[in-house]
Amino acid sequence: MSIWSFEKGFRAVARVQRTLRGPLRPSWDETFETLAMVLHHYGTHSTSLPLAMQRRAVERFFEGGAVLTETQIERSEIGGVAAAWFRPRGADPERVLLFLHGGGYSIGSIDSHRDLVARLCRAAGCTGLSLGYRLAPEHPFPAQLEDAVAGYRGLLEKGFAAERVVVGGESAGGGLTLSLLVKLRDEGLPLPAGAFCISPWVDLEGLGASVQQNARFDYLNRKVLQIYASRFVTDGDLRTPLAAPLYANLDGLPPLLIHAGEAEVLLDDARSITDRARQAGVEVELEVWPDMIHAWHAYAPIVAQGRDAIARLGEFVQNRQSV
To answer: Which of 75, 181, 298, 306 has a 20 to 30 A CA-CA distance from 112?
Structure first.
């Protein structure tokens, strides 16, 4: 079941609504508005389903594009953690992207993000390692961080130079990327050359104004975020720095590139963590993409802005690994 299984009915509704009031966002064409409606409907209702069903749905949500046929994907493990190597044609075997998937720490997997990782590695011309970290609530915090550290240590033990590694993550994986960097710094391990965060989730309480302001455009909302957070941590850990990196000391982190959509619920998460990083003296760039929803990169097979954003991230990875 791909994301377009329900396209016909939603497209008809989108067409009528656009006729009556124009596009919901200035740059949205009919296809993008239909996509946004499908995702909004799914996001609103998905958490009422059993968790196992949510996980299966996400696994089948994306069919992926032709890029998958051009990428060798090898299942493996690293540091005792499930993983998969991604090797696009012509990829540099000495440069690697360590990718941490999103899904609120309780859904998502290597399979659900195959297309995105393949596209990122192709854009960067590098090898990729996608980590299948343990999921909550069966494995609550700090299991995800422990697995991320084990995966990074595993890369170093395999002989990859830290200056040829970039870490990247999407949504919860973006938050986990920042937590990983903080943990590596605190443990005195060599830091990667840089990191990128796609729509990072760094505030487990959902305090940003954009959580309410952009709820009608996006497929996340306050209730969904609260459900994900309750699976991941106890109420007493909502501001624990390594779980909610908005509250972490970011001193000494490597250069960061953060992507956020202008129409997404987690826009203020991205803005806030950028401000915190700058205050800590970190080299950080925030790019807010007009009218985009949460993690629009994942819809690159049908969204041109997703392909453009991935190309930008690929450029960042190449530049950092060449310093």
So the answer is: 181
pTM, to two decimals:
0.96
- Residue partners of 159: CB distance under 8 A and separation at least 6: none
**Span 7-62, pLDDT tens digits:** 778 888 889 899 999 999 999 999 999 999 999 998 988 899 999 999 998 887 76
Query: What DSSP letter does each residue of 239-275 carry, written as one string?
Result: T-TTTSGGGS--TTPPPEEEEEETT-TTHHHHHHHHH
CATH number at residue 113: 3.40.50.1820
Task: Give me the helix-helix angle, 143-157 and 172-186, nearest 10°.
Answer: 60
Q: Kindly state whether residue 262 falls inside one of the protein's structural domains.
A: yes
Looking at the 3D structure of the chain, how many domains does it have?
1
Q: Which of 101, 113, 294, 297 is catalytic?
A: 294
Any catalytic annotation for residue 46? Answer: no
In a domain, residue 273? The reply is yes
Report the distance separating Cα 22 and Cα 221, nearest Å. Answer: 24
Beta-carbon neighbour count of residue 197 at 10 Å?
A: 31
Write down the catalytic residue from 130, 171, 179, 199.
Answer: 171
Q: Which residues pair with 169 in a beta bridge?
A: 100, 197
Asked if 112 and 62 count as a contact pair (C-beta separation under 8 A), the reply is: yes
Query: How far is the CA of 148 from the CAs of 28, 176, 274, in angstroms?
Result: 36, 8, 22
Per the structure, the complete domain to which residue 69 belongs is given by 65-321
Q: Residue 21: inside a domain, yes or no?
A: no
- Does residue 264 have an active-site annotation? yes
User: Is the dihedral angle over the CA atoms 62, 68, 73, 78 positive or is it negative?
Assistant: negative
199 with 168: CB under 8 angstroms? no
**Burial (CB count <10 Å: 0-12, 13-18, 19+), residue 202:** buried
Q: Which of the following is catalytic: 101, 264, 272, 297?
A: 264
Residue 149 lies in a domain: yes
**5 in catalytic set:** no
